[in-house]
Write a structure and sequence with these properties.
six-stranded antiparallel β-sheet, globular, alpha+beta
Length: 217
């Protein structure tokens, strides 16, 4: 999340904690309803694993939620993310994957629980142009439809396009980021905000593995 912030990607404010009282202090610093997310190795879908607590509005709720997560996961709990609740919106996935032949791909699709169920995704090669990024987000039918609406159900496609461009620059700058998922990105009528992210690192190849070369006999 610190890395994404370096690229100007809008993030819901957050604090990292290890004890219930630290989480309560983080709630006071953030100044509003918060979510608590347990960091546990191997847990990707936090809601399904019981690693997520939402809409906590006072210090005692936060302490109890942290203690409950500690009891649930025991020594596997590496820490707790205390995060300000993001504005309501449509859940979108934005990410990247390094392909050994084509290079980095930027991916866009439906986020949250719809990601695995529907697998509605589009991808474009990085680096993206403005046209590429606009085409990427509009290639997802649900996003294109919501982008054409008005009111509370609308989605700010310009904000998603800007986020995709920033993600594209990250992919080009940092080939050691082999996979990156921002899921969900909360897309609302007036912006888009990432509330969760996962990054996988790998040593990038030193050369083109598919380039033919002469070898001595």
């Amino acid at each position: 999340m610190e890395l994404l912030g370096c690229y100007g990607i809008a993030m819901a404010p957050w604090r990292w904690t290890h004890e219930p009282e630290e989480s309560a202090r983080a709630w006071r610093e953030l100044g509003g309803p918060v979510a608590l997310k347990a960091d546990v190795a191997g847990v990707v879908h936090k809601k399904q694993a019981g690693a997520l607590r939402l809409d906590l509005t006072d210090a005692e709720q936060v302490r109890e939620a942290h203690a409950d997560l500690a009891d649930r996961f025991g020594e596997d709990l590496r820490g707790v993310l205390v995060q300000e609740m993001a504005p309501r919106g449509f859940e979108v996935l934005l990410g990247l994957v390094q392909q050994p032949v084509f290079g980095p791909l930027v991916v866009c699709g439906l986020g949250g629980t719809y990601t695995e169920a529907l697998r509605t995704r589009a991808a474009r090669l990085a680096p993206l142009t403005d046209f590429d990024a606009d085409e990427l987000v509009r290639s997802v039918p649900a996003l294109r439809t919501l982008g054409e609406q008005d009111g509370d159900n609308a989605v700010d496609l310009d904000a998603l396009r800007d986020t995709a461009l920033r993600l594209s620059q990250l992919a080009v700058d940092l080939p050691q980021v082999s996979e990156l998922d921002m899921n969900p990105v909360m897309a609302a009528p007036s912006g888009a905000m990432c509330v969760d992210a996962r990054i996988r690192l790998a040593v990038p190849p030193s050369g083109d593995p598919y380039l033919r070369a002469l070898r001595p006999l």
